[in-house]
Design goal:
The structure holds 2 protein chains of 2 kinds.
Chain A lengths: L1 H10 L2 H32 L10 E8 L6 H14 L3 E7 L9 E6 L9 E7 L4 H5 L3 E4 L8 E3 L11 E4 H7 L9 E4 L6 E7 L20 E4 L1 E3 L3 E8 L4 H15 L3 E8 H8 L1 H35 L1 H9 L4 H37 L7 H27 L11
Parallel strand pairs in A: 4-10, 6-11, 7-9
Antiparallel strand pairs in A: 1-12, 1-13, 2-12, 3-4, 3-8, 5-9, 7-10, 8-9
Chain B lengths: L1 H14 L1 H28 L11 E6 L23 H10 L4 E13 L8 E8 L3 H4 L4 E4 L4 H6 L3 E4 L1 H8 L8 E4 L2 E9 L22 E4 H6 L19 H5 L7 E5 L3 H20 L9 E5 H7 L5 H31 L1 H9 L4 H37 L2 H4 L6 H27 L3 H7 L1
Parallel strand pairs in B: 3-8, 5-7
Antiparallel strand pairs in B: 1-9, 1-10, 2-3, 2-6, 2-9, 4-7, 5-8, 6-7
Helix pairs in contact in B: 1-13, 2-11, 2-13, 2-15, 11-15, 12-16, 13-15
The chains are: A alpha+beta, B alpha+beta.
Chain lengths: 408, 440
């Protein structure tokens, strides 16, 4: 009965009601998609790297001049680093997780099987790598010292005598069978590299959402090379709580060993993680801020328009009160009215949200909207409407019935 | 008349401060949000070299073949975004453009003159002399090296103003010596500030990153076997494991730019590229029909997706938000005008025409739009400062308001508010004078 009356009165106020409904619809359309993007980015930022980030830092070492004894120099450096008080282990590599730079190679089960090739990140590693990174060997064995080759040029002069792969890569290359004892082929080379070990988890160096590496995030392969080229990355793991202290002294230690070098990019992996996901995190903050502002603007818009309606209908409300309507009835009237408007806006909003999402799926690297977000968003805007209408409704309820008897 | 309408508008706005403030706040917040994202979008989408962007070209040459499945990276057409050393040398030697430069980035240790200071690393661009006039790079001191320096592999260097300040205390360092990787280089020029945004000439590592501080002849860098510091794509390395083997491999790791002043020059260069690829096929290096492309700066930036998806999404979100804010302001304006229906009725009865009422109400909307725009500008500045705090340094370089952005913000605010004000104003103009007077 009441709904009928409300609809009748709304018909006299079409534009105002439509303004609110469309506002709610657009708000919902943005809200669903923004919350969905926020959740995806947060989830991406929480993907574990597989290594003991809290106690690891890395630095870039570049030799000055054109030294001929690179392997000996690197070995000397690593010896000095491992001897430092507070250091657990260290190794020299081409790259590390979260460093956002490295080598990607296609790995296949046979050298000509172009179709079955899997994209991976290739890390240079020695017998100290697993202990330094803190990754768990789940099958097979670690590299042995005599397998590790000093690589003093980017152009590979040697073929790996063994490789260690991640579990994710093993499952892609050898589904339902043990990779141990099998061989892989790197970048279509005819040389068969035997898999000697499988590690639990190790992410690729890149971490941007939807960027390079996101399609093969845990496909990593370790090859027994010690990076002794002109520049190499030293990865150093410290005892818990000693990272800051070791980082302070590491530069002097290395300069004392040899002065003709440039040490740069000294960075804990925890900082590298923050840097890697900085723009993702910024997107979350910006979208979050917009969502809050949006809800506020829409909320105040409803307050403003409803207040105006109340002001317009003061006399009618007074008459209803004089004819026996209770205060609750007046409040309920405005709440029901808002619910009707908000519900139609919500229906339109869900359509908008899905349309916007489909457009983003086709134009950007975006996944389909999870319906849960549409549902949660709808509940949020309906609640917002009820909340916003409360104050004007209470004001309406406080209009004295005597108003009806007064002249205009 | 304008002054009188303005006076009326201000008086009317003052009469209902709460509604006025709400309207201005709605417009301000909407403009603030949309202009924050538009500013970043415009910086990403900007033309880094407007005077010449249609005359500078980057080529693509298919050196892997359309069916090579070993290529792990490449564009939608399966073409590489960089070229091989072989192609770079051949294109340089052909001199088919009025200016041309091959280039790549390496990292060099700089040894300061004083023994007390430790060596430090600097990003170094190895290129040809034409790089500087072609990209209109401004010089503070000196000039580019000469064409003969390119040929003779001279140890010469052009440094940035920033590095000159750091190493030479800002003095004119032309003629002085800089020790790079234990070799003495003669400084021939110091650049003035030059930060094209996006860094169109090399988008491989960071699209909005800072430029290099050192520039040396390409021929010298190759001679000294300086490895590239950025992406190199090999699709299965098959060469000999030596520097020479790498140079003559099919690895792509070099950028190339050509200046072609007229449309017919560009057409001629396209034909030249195709002939070149055909010739490589005749000599047996390629066994597929020529596939080459030539992009000017704008096309190259689009090809590289200089505007990130995230920013496109943010612009969309921000404009939807602005739309909500405008609807809001429209609702409030409607409320405000209908509250004054009696007032308008009296004025109509006293002889004001519909057009007059319309103009007066629209003036009110315009004032709200302008003030809202100013509030929005302040919020934009605040928003950009906030964004700068939380994004990576590269993205942070895109967060600066240009005079054009300010103009866009104000005109957008006024126009959008006028548009939102049209319906309420129309309603005001159609107030029935007699009806209103009777109700009194």
């Amino acid at each position: 009965m009441e709904v009928n009356i409300i609809l009748k009165s709304l018909r006299r106020n079409k534009i105002g009601a439509m303004v609110i409904a469309v506002q709610i619809a657009v708000t919902l359309g943005i809200l669903c998609n923004a919350l969905f993007i926020i959740q995806q980015r947060l989830e991406a930022g929480r993907r574990p790297s597989g290594v003991d980030e809290a106690d690891i830092f890395m630095l870039r070492n570049q030799w000055v001049g054109d030294p001929k004894d690179l392997p000996a120099r690197v070995a000397g450096d690593l010896g000095a680093l491992r001897g430092l008080d507070g250091v657990v282990d260290a190794y020299a590599s081409n790259s590390a997780p979260l460093s956002n730079g490295g080598d990607s190679e296609g790995i296949g089960r046979d050298p000509d099987g172009v179709e079955d090739t899997v994209l991976t990140a290739m890390y240079y590693a020695d017998e100290h790598t697993l202990a330094t990174l803190g990754v768990k060997l789940v099958a097979g064995r670690n590299f042995q010292a005599d397998e590790v080759v000093d690589l003093d040029s980017y152009i590979e002069q040697t073929r790996p005598s063994a490789v260690i792969i991640t579990r994710a890569l093993a499952e892609k290359l050898f589904p339902h069978e043990s990779p141990l004892g099998k061989s892989v082929y790197i970048s279509f080379d005819k040389h068969a590299a035997p898999v000697v070990g499988v590690i639990d988890r190790l992410q690729v160096p890149w971490s941007s959402t939807g960027g390079w590496g996101s399609q093969f995030f845990y496909n990593s392969i370790l090859v027994p090379y010690r990076m002794s080229v002109l520049y190499s990355n030293y990865v150093i793991r410290t005892k818990p709580g000693r990272l800051a202290a070791v980082m302070k002294t590491v530069q002097t230690t290395l300069v004392d060993v040899n002065r003709d070098r440039v040490i740069s990019k000294i960075k804990p992996l925890s900082v590298a993680r923050v840097d890697s996901y900085k723009d993702d995190h910024a997107l979350v903050v910006i979208l979050g801020t917009v969502c809050v502002a949006l809800l506020l603007v829409t909320g105040f818009g409803i307050v403003g328009l409803t207040s105006y309606w109340v002001a317009q209908r003061r006399r009618q409300i007074g008459i209803r009160r004089a004819l026996g309507a209770s205060k609750q009835a007046i409040v309920r009237y405005f709440q029901t009215e808002n619910l009707l408007i908000a519900a139609s806006g919500t229906a339109l909003g869900i359509v908008l949200a899905i349309a916007a999402n489909l457009w983003m799926v086709s134009s950007f690297q975006m996944q389909r909207l999870n319906p849960v977000y549409a549902f949660l968003g709808a509940l949020a805007v309906l609640a917002l409407g009820q909340l916003a209408v409360l104050w004007p409704a209470l004001r309406a309820a406080s209009i004295p019935p005597a108003l009806a008897t007064r002249g205009v | 008349m304008f002054a009188y309408y303005l006076k009326l508008a201000l008086r009317s706005l003052k009469r209902n401060v709460v509604l006025t403030v709400l309207m201005i706040a709605a417009i301000g917040v909407g403009i603030g949000a949309s202009m924050t994202t538009v500013t970043i979008f415009r910086a990403m989408d900007g033309d880094p070299i407007p005077e010449k962007s249609s005359r500078l070209f980057a080529p693509q040459i298919d050196n892997y073949g359309p069916d090579n499945k070993k290529v792990v990276a490449g564009d939608a057409e399966h073409l590489q975004d960089q070229i091989t050393y072989i192609d770079a040398v051949n294109l340089m030697n052909a001199k088919a453009a009025s200016r041309q430069a091959a280039m790549y980035v390496t990292a060099l240790p700089v040894t300061p003159p004083s023994r007390d200071l430790l060596p430090f690393q600097e990003q170094t661009r190895a290129t040809y002399r034409d790089f500087f006039p072609m990209f209109q790079v401004p010089f503070l001191y000196g000039a580019p090296w000469s064409a003969s320096d390119d040929e003779d592999r001279t140890y010469v260097v052009v440094i940035s103003r920033e590095l000159n300040d750091r190493v030479f205390g800002g003095a004119n360092s032309v003629g002085r010596t800089l020790k790079l990787d234990n070799h003495d280089y003669r400084v021939v020029g110091v650049l003035n500030r030059w930060q094209p945004l996006p860094k169109f000439y090399d988008l491989t590592s960071s699209k909005y990153g800072e430029g290099e501080n050192l520039f040396i002849p390409f021929s010298r860098a190759i001679e000294n076997q300086m490895q590239g510091a950025e992406s190199s794509n090999c699709a299965g390395y098959t060469g000999a494991p030596t520097w020479d083997g790498y140079l003559h491999s099919e690895c792509v790791w070099i950028q190339f730019w050509a200046e072609l002043p007229t449309v017919s020059d560009a057409a001629r260069y396209r034909a030249f590229l195709n002939n070149y690829a055909a010739e490589q096929r005749r000599t047996g290096r390629f066994n597929w029909p020529p596939r080459t492309r030539l992009y000017d700066v704008r096309e190259w930036l689009i090809h590289w997706h200089a505007v990130s998806d995230e920013v496109r999404i943010l612009v969309l979100v921000a404009f939807s938000f602005l739309f909500v804010c405008l609807l809001n302001a429209m609702g409030l304006m409607l409320a405000k005008i209908m509250n004054r229906a009696a007032d308008i009725g009296v004025r109509r009865a006293l002889g004001a025409s519909r057009g007059t009422i319309f103009g007066q109400c629209l003036m009110e909307a315009g004032v709200v739009g302008l003030v809202g725009g100013l509030v929005g500008l302040a919020l934009t500045a605040l928003g950009l400062a906030g964004v700068r705090q939380i994004v990576s340094p590269g993205t942070g370089r895109l967060t600066h308001l240009s005079p054009t952005d300010i103009g866009i913000a104000l005109s957008l605010a006024v126009l959008a508010t006028l548009l939102a004000g049209l319906y309420p104003t129309w309603r005001a103009a159609h107030v029935q004078p007699a009806w209103q007077l009777k109700a009194q």
